[in-house]
Amino acid sequence: MISKIKAYFNISRSEWRGMIVVFFLLMLTYIFNKVYEKQVYSPLKFSVEEIFPLSKDALSPIIEKSGTLSSKTKVAELFIFNPNGLSLEDWMKLGLSYKQALSIKKYEDKGGRFLKKEDLKKMYVISEEVYRTLEPYISIPKIDVNRNLKPELGKAGIVSLSIDINSVDSSTIQLIKGIGPAYASRIIRYRDRLGGFIKKEQLRDVYGVDSLKFAEISPHIKIDTQHVRFIDINAITIEEFRRFPYLTYRQKSVILAYRKQHGAYQNFEQIRKAALLDLEIMDKITPYIKFK
Q1: Which of 98, 125, 131, 280 is surrounded by the fewest CB atoms within 10 Å?
Q2: What is the signed CA dihedral for 32, 33, 35, 40, rounded to 10 degrees?
Q3: Which residues, by range, are in coiled-coil regions (predicted)?
């Protein structure tokens, strides 16, 4: 049989021997690898920290944003804070992940407010353990809701309510005739972007509030500026500044770049020249800016 195969393929005796040697070498190599894997070989185990010990801090913001790093593995920077209007960056300093902080900001954007410490515990992204850690540092100014619903005597002796929209939640704003859940949510969202209303006329900037709607609701609204959150122009970051509605992102970036290059602002004229702002914009932003 073998001789027929050799004759068919025209294989010489020396070539045949060579083929047999190669076959046995291949078999030996295969058997050796199998034995080595079972008896000797052990997979190399390592962590990212061992390979990139100096990169961990640089990578942490990316890990946080992806939501793959739990709050237990981060070192929290605890400080006294009011959860209402707290920036995304500050929530993350307190030990929350990017996704957790973003969830809280979305809750506020929809009109949510924290009236007492325990309200924070109702957020599904805040575990019992995290709440116990943060609870001693939560400071929410006590607001007497009844104080913000001031009865006023209208025409024909009819009592109406006058509501301070800088200090109440969306459900309270809905007590005003003509304001439903949608309008209340938009007003709260815009108020939080501003930091608070300075005058009633700013409600005209809220989507859907035209001259007729404004005329309907304005008699029942009052403005208490003690609840306004002002902007420290010499300390604010771009993340905190980005939600402010009266300036474009480019104008905000230019203002902060000028501060970085030339130092702290001393007056409004420096801000106007830095970003080439017109008088209309300056009139809008001036009440919100403080120099500290």
Answers
A1: 280
A2: 120
A3: none
Asked if 247 contacts 195 with a C-beta cutoff of 8 angstroms, the reply is: no
Tell me the residue length of the chain. Answer: 292
Check residue 204 and give its pLDDT.
93
284/286 Cα distance (integer angstroms): 6
Residue 152 sits at φ, ψ, to 5 deg, of: -130, 145
Q: Residue ranges of the alpha helices (H) in the chain?
A: 2-9, 13-39, 48-51, 56-66, 88-93, 98-109, 118-121, 128-134, 170-173, 181-194, 211-217, 238-241, 249-262, 268-275, 279-285
* pLDDT at residue 9 in the model: 62
**Predicted TM-score of the model (pTM):** 0.49
Q: Largest Cα–Cα distance of the chain, in whole Å?
A: 125
Contact criterion met (CB below 8 Å) for 155 and 161:
no
Spatial distance between the Cα atoms of 153 and 176, rounded to a whole number of angstroms:
15
pLDDT, averaged per 10 consecutive residues of the chain (292 residues), comes to 61 76 84 70 55 48 46 66 83 89 81 79 87 88 52 45 86 85 90 93 92 91 91 93 93 95 93 92 94 84
At 66, which amino acid appears? S
